[in-house]
Amino acid sequence: MSLQNVAHPDEVYTERTTQSRAHMERARKVMPGGMTANIKHFAPYPITINRASGSKFYDVDGNEYIDYLMGYGALILGHAHPHVREAIVRQVEEDGTWLFGTPHDREVTMATRIQKHFPSMEQIRYANSGTEANLLAVRLAMAHTNKYKIAKFEGHYHGAIDSLLLSIHPSKSDAGEQEDPQAVPDSGGMSPEVANETIILPFNDIKSCARILEQHKDELAAVIIEPMEGGIIAPKQRFLQQLRKVTNKLGILLIFDEVKTAFRSAMDGVQGVYDVTPDLTTIGKVVGGGFPFGVVGGKATIMEQSSPLNGTDIFAGEDSEASQKALFHSGTYNGHPLILAAGIATLDVLEQEYDALVARTDRFREELTHLFRKHDIPMKTVGSGAMFSVLLTERQEINHYRDLQKCDHDSRKKLDKALFEAGVYTKPGNRYSLSVVHDDEALTKTLEAYDRVIPEVIRY
Ligand SMILES: Cc1ncc(COP(=O)(O)O)c(C=O)c1O
């Protein structure tokens, strides 16, 4: 049974977003494609937002939306939660500035808070994004093992790092066999060599992973994985435990990229749910309270390599041989006091309200599933905790990128655009990230919007 979607008139979109279009015309004169991040783009032009409150935001034409993008999952307390706002103001007032450039107390407070949920992060370093955190994790792994290749999974995203920006979204013709995926660069401007330096693995297929890793064990520093693929596709029972066993046996480090999932899929991350201890973990998004932040943590023996006590700093003007002994990691804004204040305040609230948020998200997913069933449209939701995606598919199981590719993404995007008109926003095709302020009223309004829009947009 295949879906045939009925085109929803794009004119409705353009009629109600004339100021967004005007904004984009101005933006395209000064920024490539009018964008500061390619991910923000969708055709014919994205909606421009200029105000937000709680679970809602408003575009430059004055339209109101319930926001399910929530800053790509970062804003788990919604927009401008009062506890976070107070913490930010208090930080500036009490500290008298928002940047010291020296050690300070919140660096330790935050580390301790993170370790409470992620005991595998025995020692911690801060960075300014998930991308930066992964960059450091890869360097730590290479230094620790004296090996210089990385294995990553097809369909998994870790930021715009040359060695990891491969096979996130490969075309069917380039991707190779399912059991033997090929490395396909995801961007221009990358050396053709990178495709030889990174090994691609198939998610949820431990037999193929074990075979590929055995083949490359002498050159592989680490396997990096989104342990819940894309934040939505669950690992099969025991897949992560088996991957841990194989990597341990072969002397390859295991890095969990929990940038999306930490404090969103579960308070203790996917590693907590599946009881697997990686060597290194990277987190970001939620833990930065909506500000630019990334964290690397893991085994003390690995993390200690970046200690300045091992050598000196490249900027210190001292013995340059000593500086080469320490693994370099630095950053003007690392451990930014304002960001740590926002992040700690976010954890304060989340520790109290997370379970209720998950219960509400689960109920919402169930009600959405019933609604699609009522309209006789095959759909399943995938995800966990306070994050999920709506997949238009008859498939029972979604195990990896290639299953995901077989879903009806065109109809999903049309549905999302039609939902704009009904006051419901996520970037077309993207995940739903709920927050503690998505209350019953917002969720009911969303279900009513879906009920109206589904038959307008999708039919057999
Ligand atoms: C799993 C994962 N890793 C890394 C990143 C990169 O994080 P950032 O955008 O903060 O650089 C992302 C961002 O979406 C992500 O989802």
Description:
InterPro entries: Aminotrans_3, Aminotrans_3_PPA_site, PyrdxlP-dep_Trfase, PyrdxlP-dep_Trfase_major, PyrdxlP-dep_Trfase_small. There is one protein chain. With about 450 residues, this protein is of the alpha/beta class. It has a domain at about 80-345: Type I PLP-dependent aspartate aminotransferase-like (Major domain) (Aspartate Aminotransferase, domain 2, 3-Layer(aba) Sandwich). The chain is about 40% helix and about 15% strand. It has helices at about 10-15, 20-30, 80-95, 105-115, 130-145, 195, 205-215, 240-250, 270-275, 300-305, 320-325, 335-375, 400-405, 410-420, 440-455, and strands at about 5, 50-55, 55-60, 65, 125, 150-155, 175, 180, 200, 220-225, 255, 280-285, 295-300, 380-385, 385-390, 425, 430-435, 460. α7 (about 205-215) runs parallel beside α8 (about 240-250) and α12 (about 335-375) crosses α15. The model has no long low-confidence stretch (mean pLDDT about 95). Bound molecules: pyridoxal-5'-phosphate. Pyridoxal-5'-phosphate binds next to α5.
